[in-house]
Amino acid sequence: MRFLGIGDSCDLGALYLRLLAEGHEVKVHVGNPLCHDTLAGLVERTDDWKRELGWVREPGENGIILFENVAEKRGVLQDELRRDGFNVVGGSAFGDRLENDRGYAQDVLRDLGLSICPVKTFQNRTDAIDYLRRNPGRYVVKFNEAYETFVGQLPRGEDVVAFLTGLPVQGEDESFIVMEFVEGVEMGVGAYFNGERFLTPSCLDWEHKRFFPGDLGELTGEMGTIVTYDRTARFHALTLGRMEGLLRQNGYCGYINLNTIVNEHGIWPLEFTCRFGYPGYAILDPLQVTPWSALFRALVTRSGSSFVTRPGFAAGIVMSTPPFPYQRPDVNVPVGMPVIFDPTLTPADQRNIHYGEVGLRNGQLVTSGAYGWTLVATGTGSTIVEAQQRANLLASRITIPKQK
Length: 404
Hints:
- By secondary structure, this protein is an alpha+beta fold.
- The chain folds into 3 domains: 2-98, NAD(P)-binding Rossmann-like Domain (Rossmann fold), CATH 3.40.50; 118-180, Dna Ligase, domain 1; 185-399, 2-Layer Sandwich (D-amino Acid Aminotransferase, Chain A, domain 1).
- It contains 13 helices and 21 strands.
- The protein has helices at residues 13-21, 53-57, 74-83, 93-100, 102-111, 125-134, 158-166, 233-238, 244-249, 280-284, 292-301, 347-351, 384-395; strands at 2-7, 25-30, 44-45, 63-67, 88-89, 119-122, 139-143, 149-151, 176-180, 185-193, 203-212, 216-228, 254-263, 266-273, 313-320, 340-341, 353-355, 358-361, 364-367, 373-381, 398-399.
- It has an 8-stranded antiparallel beta sheet, with helices on both faces. A 5-stranded parallel beta sheet has the order 3-2-1-4-5, sandwiched between helices. It has a 4-stranded antiparallel beta sheet with strand order 6-9-7-8, with helices on both faces.
- A hairpin with a 3-residue loop joins strand 11 (203-212) and strand 12.
- 42% of the residues are buried.
């Protein structure tokens, strides 16, 4: 099979390497110049993905385009390519709007009968601050089409006001939501959608987003996650499963995740991820028996309703390096530091190492990219504790010298 990856920062690097190991052809376009060294020497690159359309169309249903992210109206482009007869896995224009327009997503979920947190959308910070001062309380702020998020801690919202006052402007037409804080357990539900229906099983996940253990430190994209495919059907039916008709109507094809808060009062949906989440897809990999290529082929051909998974849990640990949790050039740090593995690692150990921002330099694996998402170490087990212990043990056998 042939796969053409399109993205900005080569987020699906570990997946591309899996496809190559299965014997398939892979070409990748990386849009961000700061990320051009990611997977250098490991995966064939193309500077012009449009030039490769004939190459990926030639094998028919065995040629697939993989989209990594929702930036720059990528969903609209995916819809156009599908209309032109290409096999595309990623999302859709509808998916882009669900992820990037958070207020709209909440309206969609409310109309489907889900309980949503009280939320307001703002295009003006002054209006938002006036609202917060008139309605003191604990709030969460999330920017549309950006990753800036702040979870307030103070009961009258003074910290949220301070955040909005001090944060640099997030683009010319910034918009954001202010959502009432809901106490509970944060968990997500995700599944693959083939354009008509969800493939079973879906997964459940519990993310750790704070920089430090103990739920301390600033919010990051994600530091690690627990995932499982076991006993997921009921939660899926109550939440993400209700999206099936809308996803079908809007031509969605790919992975989609809905993050929620669960407490004694019910399930409170927070936000969608309408793409392959990183590092989520890499942490799911050890639990998926069906090869990635077969899964993607089933999605674009709508030839199956399920795929094979392993029981139990997988735990993933993001092994990061500077500038994480920031990015270059905001923090001027070097890349190219060597990544060193314990020489006694077994093939099973190596399969639980998922490359992120790394590349080859003179035969040595080194750090690369813009964010410091260097790699992910995973472990599996029949219990969460067992999976976590195996992931920690594997991570301890990987050394990445870091400069101050």
